[in-house]
Write a structure and sequence with these properties.
233 residues; mainly alpha; Serine Threonine Protein Phosphatase 5, Tetratricopeptide repeat; 75% helix
Length: 233
Amino acid sequence: MCIFFYLFACTSITSLELAQERLNKAILIYDEGNFQEASNILEEIIEDTIITRDEEISARTYLAFSYVARGKRMEAKKQFIKILKLNEDFSLNPEFVSPKIIKVFKEAEKMTKKPDTEKIIKMKIKPPSTAQCLVKSSLLPGWGQVSRGEKKKGNFLIGAFTVSLAALTLSHLAYLSAENSYMNAETKSDIEYQYSRYNFTYKTRYIMMEVSLFIWLYAVTDIFMTEPQKELE
């Protein structure tokens, strides 16, 4: 077992040494201006060789340089993006790198940057005036409250007023039906029954009218009595 690990370690060290030699050779070929051959060697090193993180960054850097020299800007950007993923602090020195390469690198750098959520300024919306909220709540109780940011209260008032209107409508229809039956009743027992029914529906309708009116008055009065939020997000 020890012999196996020893052989594995020796093989790994040898592979790393060969990778460094091939990388140095590719850099020399790049410096000589043979960008196609340099690209081929660097691509093989990255894909088929065991290399360290620093060696990978170096290989991808010169591969990106070679792509720029060959006019393959998009391929160069891809390499720069992969480099920035390995080291987000990676940068190029303008004193030693051509402006053409710097420009491509900056474009790739912009593509990798995420927006700083802490610097995003939330939009502040000025709330509607009291008069506007008053008009809205007069038309639909709760609408004015929702408009100025009191959503829970506003939605509750809208729901309560909607239910009360529905109940008022049903009670009014029941009242009309009872009234018609009462007016057409002939026998004493039927007249008494229809009258009690008519009286009940009349009172029910009156109560629902009061409930609806109360909700409407509360919604309108609330606009005057409470202060609106200064700013809405």
